[in-house]
């Protein structure tokens, strides 16, 4: 997504406004009222979108600069397999393993959580995903403190508001398990089904 699309998603979720109407420019008066309420809240947030960064080395440099200025509390990478390494490797699996390890070490160095989204292997669509489905490298499983899969059961795609399963497949300091969430596509949000 572009920076504009990401910001639109944030506004849509925060204001509970349909993201399609926001994108199409067909908002109603009540939507503008909601948007005005959350505008100041979101404009006070200190976040940086870095959609032009392509290599793990660029991420390291930018993260250290932001941390030195006290402007970095969490780093989100969307997504791991899009990152390249300026060093040369024999194959993509080794490159992804190095990227994964670099993110782990960066998290420890800067004392921040790093959330890295990751693609799964194609065959993961057929079954409930497992750690072996992490695409291109077993190092991701090894380096991660927590691994959470979001997936729908077969046949759920047709539902208007599908149930999504959040499966905690790995957690270094706790239990593993699953929870069912409702995905609200209009506002791009997940809602717990447990009250």
Explain this structure.
The protein is α+β, with helices and mostly antiparallel strands and 195 residues long. It folds into two domains: 3-145, Rossmann fold (3-Layer(aba) Sandwich); 146-195, no CATH class. It contains six helices and six strands, in the order H-H-H-H-E-H-E-H-E-E-E-E. It has helices at residues 3-15, 19-24, 29-43, 56-68, 92-110, 139-143; strands at 75-77, 114-116, 146-151, 163-171, 177-184, 189-192. The strands form two sheets. It has a four-stranded antiparallel β-sheet, with no helix packed on it. Strands 1-2 form a two-stranded parallel ribbon. Strand 4 (163-171) and strand 5 (177-184) form a beta hairpin. Helix 1 (3-15) crosses helix 3 (29-43) and helix 4 runs parallel beside helix 5. The longest helix is centred in the middle third of the chain and has 19 residues, at 92-110. It is globular, with a radius of gyration of 19 Å. The two termini are 32 Å apart. The model has no long low-confidence stretch (mean pLDDT 86).
What is the rounded distance between the termini?
32 Å
The neighbouring-strand order within the major sheet is 3-4-5-6
Mean pLDDT: 86
Radius of gyration, CA atoms, in whole angstroms: 19 Å
CATH domain fold name of the largest domain: Rossmann fold
The helix content, as a percent range, equals 25-40%
In the CATH scheme, the class of the largest domain would be Alpha Beta
Number of domains: 2
Q: Strand tally, please?
A: 6
Number of helices: 6
Show unreliable segments. Answer: none
Q: What is the CATH architecture assignment of the largest domain?
A: 3-Layer(aba) Sandwich
Structural class: alpha+beta
Largest sheet: 4 strands, antiparallel
Bulk shape:
globular
* Strand/helix succession: HHHHEHEHEEEE
Portion in beta strands: 15-25%
């Amino acid at each position: 997504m572009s920076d504009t699309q990401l910001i639109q998603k944030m506004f849509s979720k925060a204001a509970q406004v349909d993201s399609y109407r926001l994108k199409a420019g067909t908002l109603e008066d009540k939507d503008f009222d909601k948007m005005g309420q959350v505008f100041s809240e979101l404009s006070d947030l200190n976040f940086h979108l870095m959609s032009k960064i392509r290599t793990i080395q660029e991420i390291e440099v930018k993260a250290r600069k932001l941390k030195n200025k006290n402007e970095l509390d969490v780093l989100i990478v969307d997504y791991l397999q899009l990152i390249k390494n300026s060093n040369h490797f024999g194959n993509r699996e080794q490159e992804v393993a190095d990227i994964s390890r670099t993110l782990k070490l960066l998290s420890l160095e800067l004392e921040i959580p790093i959330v890295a989204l990751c693609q799964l292997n194609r065959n993961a669509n057929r079954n409930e995903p497992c750690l072996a489905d992490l695409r291109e490298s077993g190092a991701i499983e090894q380096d991660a403190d927590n691994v959470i899969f979001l997936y729908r059961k077969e046949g759920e795609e047709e539902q208007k508001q599908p149930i999504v399963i959040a499966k905690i497949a790995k957690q270094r300091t706790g239990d593993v398990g699953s929870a069912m969430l409702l995905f609200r596509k209009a506002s791009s949000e997940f809602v717990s089904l447990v009250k």
